[in-house]
């Protein structure tokens, strides 16, 4: 694509995200941005809004630190959508302007920036959480398996949807790389910001991008509306993924959204392999994200 700002190359840290958003703001008048909160370490959490339609769609990425490639896939596709709308061109075969007249898309491309930077850059001598992180990580400086935020809390186990059951199921009693729910729901600023933002915009549909598995989770304890299953089947058909009915999981963002609002919410597990997925998968992840985003906007 001519004049591309978001470069689909490794590694996509918070600094690159912020730089790309600034450049996109300079290039595209149609793009609105805002800060929805701050991370534990004080990083501003950006949201990008495109379109002016009555249907409010939300997509987020990188709830989990070592799934940062989802941020890059989403940002790449958002830029494609902006280009297509400006040039009155097609986005994945559909009329971009029409999609953005019907929908307002709001994206939070990196929910967990402190964690992403930890996975990509480690905990150097000056890192304010270095000592705790090394203990929580079992003494190793390899943080490639880190999913949590910088306080060792799994942000996708933080939401008030049968949180106590998730805590008891996880049996992780202290901070660590993954699966620690925290001491209570919404103790972490990143999760608080996502909950407040979601309540404020009252989204019609939400999707959280994760890796990996090529699966789409669409239900939650029967709270989902009837349209969720056929919607998930459409997303699956568009991406070649499998729509999966899940049990035995609580306290996730999409769980909370479904229970709170009784509207369609999805967890999308992009790609296939071992996290963090290799950058060689990026073209496929971008194509899948494009197909899924189009279907969310239809
Ligand atoms: Zn994940």
From TrEMBL:
PROSITE patterns: PEPTIDASE_M14 (PS52035)
InterPro entries attached to this UniProt entry: ENP1_M14_CPD, Peptidase_M14
SMART domains recorded: Zn_pept
Cofactor (UniProt): Zn(2+)
Record EC number: 3.4.17.-
Active site, per annotation: 269
Domain Peptidase M14, chain residue ranges per copy: 10-298
Top EC class, one word: hydrolase
Transmembrane segments: none
Family: Belongs to the peptidase M14 family.
Name assigned to this protein: M14 family metallocarboxypeptidase
Organism: Paenibacillus chartarius
């Amino acid at each position: 694509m001519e004049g591309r700002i978001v470069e689909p190359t490794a590694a996509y840290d918070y600094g690159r995200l912020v730089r790309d958003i600034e450049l996109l703001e300079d290039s595209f008048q149609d793009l609105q941005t805002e800060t929805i909160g701050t991370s534990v370490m004080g990083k501003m959490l950006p949201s990008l809004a495109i379109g002016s339609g009555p249907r409010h769609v939300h997509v987020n990425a990188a709830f989990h630190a070592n799934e940062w490639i989802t941020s890059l896939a989403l940002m790449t596709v958002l830029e494609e959508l902006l280009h297509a709308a400006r040039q009155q061109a097609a986005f994945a075969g559909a009329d971009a302007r029409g999609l953005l007249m019907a929908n307002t898309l709001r994206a939070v491309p990196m929910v967990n920036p402190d964690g992403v930077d930890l996975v990509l850059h480690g905990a150097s001598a000056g890192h304010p959480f270095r000592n705790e992180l090394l203990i929580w990580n079992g003494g190793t400086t390899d943080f490639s398996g880190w999913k949590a935020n910088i306080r060792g809390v799994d942000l996708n186990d933080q939401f008030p949807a049968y949180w106590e059951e998730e805590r008891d199921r996880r049996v992780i009693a202290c901070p660590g790389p993954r699966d620690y729910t925290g001491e209570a729901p919404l103790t972490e600023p990143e999760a608080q910001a996502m909950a407040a933002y979601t309540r404020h915009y009252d989204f019609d549909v939400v999707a959280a991008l994760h890796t990996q598995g090529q699966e789409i989770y669409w239900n939650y304890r029967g709270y989902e509306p009837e349209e969720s299953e056929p919607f998930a089947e459409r997303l699956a058909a568009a991406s070649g993924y499998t729509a999966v009915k899940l049990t035995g999981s609580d306290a996730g963002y999409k769980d909370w959204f479904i229970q709170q609002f009784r509207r369609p919410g999805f967890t999308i597990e992009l790609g296939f392999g071992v996290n963090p997925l290799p950058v060689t998968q990026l073209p496929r992840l971008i194509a899948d994200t494009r197909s899924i985003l189009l279907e969310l906007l239809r």
